[in-house]
Amino acid sequence: MNHGATLRPAAPGTARRVTARLRRTAAGTVARLAGDRTDRSGSRDTTASLTARDTTAAPAPRATTAARAAAAVLALALLATACSGGDGGDGGDRTDQHGMEYKAGTLRVLASSELADMGPILDEAAKATGVTVRPTYAGTLDAVERIASGEADKGYDAVWLSSDDYLRLRPDTAKKITDETPIMTSPVALGVRPATVARLGWDPAKVTWSQLHRAVADGKLTYGMTDPKRSNSGFSALVSVASGLSGAQSALTQQDVARATPRLKEFFTGQKLTSGSSGWLATAYARRTDVDALVNYESVLLSAPEKLTVIRPSDGVVTADYPFTLLTSARPEAKEAAGRLTTYLRTPDAQRRITETTLRRPVVAGVRPASALARDQRRELPFPGSRAVADGLLDAYDNTLRRPSRTVYVLDTSGSMGGERLDRLKSALAELTGDFRDREEVTLMPFGSSVKQGEVRTHTVDPGSPKVALDAIRADSQRLSASGGTAVYSSLQEAYRFLGRAPSDSFTSVVLMTDGENTDGDPASSFDTFYRSLPAGQQRTPVFPILFGDSDRGELDHIASLTGGKLFDATRGSLDGAFEEIRGYQ
After folding, report:
1. N or C: which end of the chain has fewer CB within 10 A?
2. Quick check: pTM over 0.85?
3. d(CA 194, CA 310)
4. Does the pLDDT at position 117 exceed 70?
């Protein structure tokens, strides 16, 4: 086995993935999180020193710095039109305040979605300081692209994300931030069902990453985590595992990851759930009694509806420190207001309220963590030492480490899809083609009054020659034609039958794209009966419907709810954006 292959430089056969990834939400942000950690003792000015450090960072193996800068613009265009998640966590809905004029005493803040739970504390802060926070909730990677593009300069005074490390790795964003003030912390941890902990005979305070790896390798532990390309918590989890299993004592290197690759591959055989957001992952986990654990921030795990035993591996963790960070474009009045706000949030009383309310840890000495939080400390695991290492780790996760994906795209090509709508579908599929991972199985299943069996095509992306499958998928999508009625439910049944004929250990899913109501074939009640009659294993395959054209939101919501999927809305944005966002769930 070539252990170093995990961090291979870009090869001709991988160029198509570079182009697609540069257009995605995660474009330009995949290399993030430098080795030095934020000083939690108070605020600091980062502008000059961080910009200098970033310009010397090692180049990414998959794209040049110039390409990444251009990619930020492309990714932002997608983000501006992408449908919203709606379930919180890393990629949840955003309350868009863009364009709001500055108002004295009000801070316009671009904030991580999970910080919505700080609302009551910010209300108290407003009464005490006269400073009101107007948040725009966004996924962390979305926020990064707004900052990189300059959009944040026009509508915001500050950013408040789970971590600024990825901002500081990029010269185009590092120069736009200053005065970071850590407010609270939460480490990445595992939330394990108590019965599993008892079965394994673990003392939660003493479990190491090696023990977790061994339990997975022995088939005794399964888990879910968010997609590292779409979620900061997912990337932090990936770095945690890589650092913990490599034994790295300083900034993570290519050699560290290469050394850990065999164990990483074994560890990720235990991943049974993936997601683009923490909120959907928690919901999916509640449905999946066959999954033992979740990997997420400690605060998220402790707030889960189901009681979980939270394990912070004893050999180290990666921690989010939630720094309140001013933009360099902020007015002097905003900077003064931010100083008042952060001073208040770091008072002992406010820190106690934060830890008791949000189950995050205080950063001020002398304030005890909430009673639900363990008191013992953990070593901070090292992050990637360069952009190249971060890129290589993420590329390895996508194409080597994780389970491959197996997806059926159930595509409405009824008569109503003729003309501009079909052109948009073809364009979206062509754009998506370059985004498919190595080993991924893709099935296009067009339907009208029934599934158009003669046009169903399946292709698997061969790591050795990916272009063959990708060109074939692109050609098949361009041959789609519109005719017939709209048999939504009969076509979904056929998709499940197709997946059931060749069971696999992949991440399976069905993507449904339709522009109208069901007019042909079986009714909704028949699909409900069919789905509930499926074996338990097949019922774990979610359907991700895309709301498009004149499709019935109620019908599609029901399909998503029944199957454990999620509805994506392309009526207010691009079809391309909807398909791209779904990638985080496949």
Report:
1. N
2. no
3. 9
4. yes
